[in-house]
S-adenosyl-L-methionine-dependent methyltransferase (Dendrothele bispora), 336 residues
Amino acid sequence: MKTVISPVITTLSYISNTRLANGITGSKSNISAHYDLSNDVFSAFLSWDMTYSCAVFDEEAKGYTGDLIENRPIAPPRKDYHDPRTMPADDLERGQLKKLHLIAQRARIKEGSHVLEIGCGWGSFAILAAGAYGATVEAITISDVQKEALDKNIFAAGLSERIKVHVMDYRNMPESFHHAFDAVVSIGVMEHVGIEFMPSWFKQMSWAMKEQNAVKVFTMSTVPDSRWHLYSSGGQLSSIKTLVNDITSAGLNIESIENIGPHYARTLREWSYRFQRNFDSHILPALKSQYLDLTADDLEIFRKKWIYYFAYSEAGFAMNSISDSVFVVTREVVSD
């Protein structure tokens, strides 16, 4: 937005991003501020699989504009892994599962694959990789609240022997992870890494990938290369060109890039529908239970901030000011 105060906003944004830089301590603080909300808050607007990233909508859902064409069924919130279904999988759930299978296939996951997932959310990909593809998974999160919920979901899925969850920063991976993985996966995570940390991120991924036939697959939102010089002074997203430079500087190679950005606009609308529909019945009680001193004004501010976040982000993806892509990265054989 170009206004007379834009330079001031940009400067304040830069200072804020510097102060909250994603060092090891800062990352924990930044993630906790968002993801350590009650799981009941997120279950009120995510689909049943609890995937918090871009879906890929199929023909039955009428693609990424289907919700604008007609009213589509929306499933009620799922509070527990054992909750019985009251209706078939809705558009958002099918779209999330389609995206997760796409990533598993791009990562060449099969029976016996050893997979590292960095930023595992509530476990939808780890459970799919272990349960549907027969992989063993090491999953990393820096959210204590997410780990607690994830462990319950893994146990309920009968996959405790195949999935191990660690609370750690990616920079603190143990020596046993060195060249240990057939596939390294991160979904909707790298937006939180910080552009100044991106070169070291890819070096750490290379460190964890097996020396032969290993694949790194990730999704990430990016800004257009043509606007990078305007954006980079205050923002924390990469562009395709800057990502390619960081990837190749770490000794890795780009195999493919698939744009799924248009689907993110609908994903955000789907989240917003659910958030607003379930706010009074599910989100308000969860917030009041977790934060006893919240006032009515606090709760209204919270509601408006999230609605603004959904709408602002949707507009960015709909106008191609932001994109989202699935990246497949490979490595040459090394002997370090």
